[in-house]
Structures are given as C-alpha cells and as structure tokens.
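Example record for the data management plan.
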Amino acid sequence: VQLQASGGGSVQAGGSLRLSCAASGISFGPDVVAAWYRQGLGKQRDLVASWSSVARPWYLDSVKGRFTISGDNTKNTMYLQMNGLKPEDTAIYYCNIRRFTSNFWGQGTLVTVSS
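Corresponding structural encoding:
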C-alpha cells in the first residue's frame, strides 16, 4: 500500500488549499477509514479529520466549518479542502488509511499560513 500526498503550499491567512492523497494497493471500501493528521513544529501529531464510506466525517473542533474531508472511491483518492486558513493551521499534513489492524501513512505535505 502506498499513499501519495500533494497539494501543500504557502498561503496567506484566509486563503484556501486542497490536499489530495492518492492510494494504491488498497480500495476505499466500507472497512477503510481515511484520515488527515497534522504535526506542527515541536508538537505532537493530531488527528484533523476522518472519513469512511459508511460513517459521518469527524473533525477536530478547531477546523469545523473550515475544512472538509472527502473521498473518491473511483479514484482511490482522499481530499482535504481547507478554507479560511489560519496561521495556527501551519503544519505538515499526513494522510492515513486504517483497515482493521493495518495502518498506512503518506509522506506528508507542508502547509504554511502567513498572517
């Protein structure tokens, strides 16, 4: 299983970015949970949002109303649409797929938000 994340970059506060994570070797079936995590400099890695085809999305409180997670079963790709970005959203964002006891990570993509 390989996850390829993309879409990070530098934006000013209030801007938008869309992260993508293409998965190979695994399908987004009902037994898969796809998620985005982030890790700021010197901070722990936190769960930002999670998605599955059989459950409602979950969001970290600080991103509710600004971020939207989604998945495309036909492309085996997950997305994180980020609007209204704030400097505190600056972090490396990692995509993650969990299936039963298996856990897979993408390589991370840097998001930098300037004030």
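Summary line stored alongside the record: The chain has no helices and eleven strands.
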